[in-house]
Write a structure and sequence with these properties.
Elements (H helix, E strand, L loop, with lengths): L4 H36 L15 H9 L6 H13 L13 H9 L41 H5 L3 H12 L21 H12 L8
Helix pairs in contact: 4-7
Bound molecules: heme C.
């Protein structure tokens, strides 16, 4: 018996129908999860309820998690995150590596118990190896040991590192790395200092 043509068309369309249904279902689950979080979180000091508001990138990543969003919406979000990075007004990318090391080791900031008037740390060691002296480092991110030694200090290299530290979500849309400049975690001067930690030949990163 031959399969009726209409059935064939329906079968061909099934994957599209089921992925649209799956996306709608995922959307429901996200809305339910958000409702639970809104009901159970209490604002406390600087940790206010606005922490639950997602920007376009975060909403896209939640919608597709654990998969990576792809397609036009994802490309647009990547491009917008890259385009919003501000380069240093004085054209100098590198500050003081010693201050940068203190920032990389400092994990305070943004918790309800932290003083919002005090500068935050970068907590880079929580995710990255940076030098040979520090033995307790996290491995969520790649090792940054010899970062500057391996790459030199050409303008494109400095600009790329600056952009990634300011907003890794311009390069890896659902990155676990904090968006240090884009979300105001570190000041421009602090980012210059961690840049110096990565690039200064005298920094322990390059020893
Ligand atoms: C919560 C974890 C986390 C923290 C904290 C973190 N990073 Fe990252 N970082 C990552 C991950 C993960 C990547 C890899 C890119 C990706 O997949 O998102 C990365 C990548 C990078 C890269 C790009 C490496 C390359 O391939 O060229 C640089 C530079 C970097 N991080 C610098 C820093 C600095 C400086 C700090 C502290 C101010 C920091 N990171 C803090 C997770 C983190």
């Amino acid at each position: 018996m031959r399969t009726p043509i209409r059935l064939l068309i329906l079968l061909a369309a099934l994957p599209a129908i089921s992925s649209a249904a799956e996306a709608a279902h995922q959307g429901d689950r996200n809305a339910q999860a958000l409702a639970v979080m809104k009901a159970s979180f209490k604002p406390h000091g600087q940790a206010d309820m606005d922490r639950l508001k997602q920007d376009t990138t975060q909403a896209l990543c939640s919608l597709h998690a654990p998969a990576m969003p792809t397609g036009e919406a994802a490309s647009k979000a990547l491009a917008a995150n890259q385009a919003s990075v501000k380069f240093p007004a004085d054209g100098k990318f590198l500050g003081d590596w010693k201050r940068g090391q203190a920032i990389a080791e400092e994990g305070t900031g943004f918790q309800y118990s932290d003083d919002p008037a005090k500068p935050s740390g970068g907590n880079c060691y929580a995710c990255h190896q940076l030098d040979k002296q520090q033995i307790a480092y996290g491995t969520i991110g790649p090792s940054l040991y010899n970062y500057g030694k391996n790459r030199g200090q050409s303008e494109p290299v400095l600009k790329l590192a600056w952009s990634m530290i300011n907003d890794m979500k311009g390069y890896s849309l659902c990155s676990a790395m904090p968006r240090f400049g884009a979300k105001g975690v570190l000041t421009e001067q602090q980012i210059k200092d961690v840049m110096a930690l990565l690039f200064d030949p005298a920094s322990p990163v390059n020893q």
